[in-house]
Design a protein that fits this description.
Elements lengths: L13 E5 L8 H6 L4 H9 L3 E8 L5 E9 L3 E9 L5 E5 L3 E10 L7 H4 L4 H6 L1 E8 L4 E12 L2 E12 L2 E13 L1
Antiparallel strand pairs: 1-2, 1-10, 2-3, 3-4, 5-6, 6-7, 7-8, 8-9, 9-10
Length: 181
């Protein structure tokens, strides 16, 4: 199910299921990030669900906590994002030791064309979420922009992702269906 108009980047709380038919293939990105063939294969056949809780604290900082599960309730990556552009280290089950930072940003502040283009007017006005991660175990980086796009006449929550390792880079669009609170 596409995202209802009542769900915006100001509150993504709810369950989101990756739409693999509309999303780009991520195998080449995961391979670049050092994810084993076995794990990549499992990810390719699993249904990935994001359980998002978004809130603002008294200090006016937005927090986005995301627990990913795969088919059968298998726990995956956990993301705890504070939108203040401060690096925080994290040990991830799939990606190893990483450090990441996130913030609200206007699209004209995003340099990469793939990350900047394709968004609905609503996010051009309110801004998007930018998330940046560096591997501490390897040399890859991942730059993401989150927002809403129209795909086949429907409104979807999407993430544009660019992963770089040395001179090599890959990009993908991830598309999510809203399935409720």
């Amino acid at each position: 199910m596409a995202a209802p108009d009542s769900i915006t980047l100001k509150d993504l709380s709810g369950k989101w299921v990756m739409d693999k038919e509309l999303s780009d293939d991520t195998d080449y990105i995961l391979q670049m990030q050092g994810v084993s063939w076995f794990i990549r294969k499992a990810i390719s056949i699993a249904t990935i669900t994001l359980h998002i809780k978004q809130y603002t604290t008294d200090d006016k900082l937005t927090h986005i906590d995301i627990d990913q599960t795969a088919t059968g309730g298998v726990s995956g990556t956990t993301e705890k994002r504070t939108l203040d552009w401060t690096f925080r280290e994290h040990s991830d089950k799939i990606f190893g030791k990483v450090k990441g930072k996130s913030k609200w940003v206007k699209l004209d502040e995003v340099e990469d064309d793939f990350l900047r283009k394709g968004w609905l007017d609503e996010v051009k006005e309110t801004g998007v979420v930018r998330a940046y991660v560096e591997s501490l175990d390897s040399t890859w980086t991942a730059d993401q922009v989150w927002g809403f796009e129209e795909i086949n006449g429907a409104r979807y929550y999407t993430r544009h992702v660019v992963v770089r390792k040395g001179d090599d880079w890959k990009q993908a669009r991830l598309v999510y269906d809203y399935t409720g609170k």
